[in-house]
Amino acid sequence: MTQASVPAQAGVPASESGPMVRAEQVHKSFGSIEVLKGIDLEVRAGEVCCLLGPSGSGKSTFLRCINHLEKINAGRIWVDGDLIGYRERGGKLHEMREKEVAAQRQAIGMVFQRFNLFPHKTALENVTEAPLLVRREKRAEVRDRAVALLERVGLGDKLGNYPSQLSGGQQQRVAIARALAMQPKLMLFDEPTSALDPELVGEVLDVMKDLARDGMTMIVVTHEIGFAREVGDSLVFMDGGVVVEQGNPREVIANPQHDRTKAFLAKVL
Ligand code: ADP
Ligand code: MG
């Protein structure tokens, strides 16, 4: 990878001068098994990057590395110009302290295949939990923001419902609102619609489309080719821990260059 995309200059937000996400030669192993074998990737601010690939290709692991849920063995990841997990001092990299890690994680929202809501909290409480506990924001402000977010995802009439009283699609929309409540600059989605009944997929994708239109930077692991084609600014196809092919989603889907991409698309289209 070249050094063409330079890190942010001092005082200039990276979102104006460089990519929102930049991964350079990211390697990750579990024991002796290398799962990520040198991932290079860039996502500019406001763009939607759709990450596709067969099961086991390392998509979830890559997302988890961006969000500190896994520690990489080699390479670098920057989010908004900020090196994930490390500080540079005196020309050397030092591992971040827990507090700094927490601050970086707060700027990154993540939505999982399984919604992982707190079962004994209402929709509203699920959304207010982190801002109140982690950031100790004012209760009234947090509540107003949470109500507005739940209205935005179409759940203004479900504030008091518990997860068990919501459909899968509604629960996933609460999970999205919950991630947004921390006002992230980047949203990671890991197969957000894979666990849903087919008739509930559309309502979650609509919320994600709305977010994309609003300018949120997103990395979306998905098998929803229609979404990638319609909403994606870039498509990255991974297989076996490497990026096999990437480009404009409409071009890659219509005219895949690699056999592995062709075989995969033939299965999901
Ligand atoms: P994908 O999301 O593309 O299906 P994953 O990132 O979940 O792929 O997994 C990639 C590979 O890494 C798989 O072979 C999986 O078994 C392995 N893997 C993922 N997490 C762990 C872990 N915590 N320990 C050991 N192996 C793991
Ligand atoms: Mg996965």
TrEMBL record:
E.C. numbers: 7.4.2.1
Enzyme class: translocase
GO molecular-function term, one example from the UniProt record: ATP hydrolysis activity
Highest taxon in the source lineage: Bacteria
Catalytic activity: a polar amino acid(out) + ATP + H2O = a polar amino acid(in) + ADP + phosphate + H(+)
UniProt keyword Calcium, yes or no: no
Protein keywords: ATP-binding, Nucleotide-binding, Transport
Pfam hit, one: ABC_tran
Keyword Transcription regulation: no
Domain (ABC transporter) ranges: 21-265
Family annotation (PROSITE patterns): ABC_TRANSPORTER_1, ABC_TRANSPORTER_2
Family recorded in the similarity comment: Belongs to the ABC transporter superfamily.
Protein name, UniProt field: ABC-type polar-amino-acid transporter
Organism: Micromonospora maris
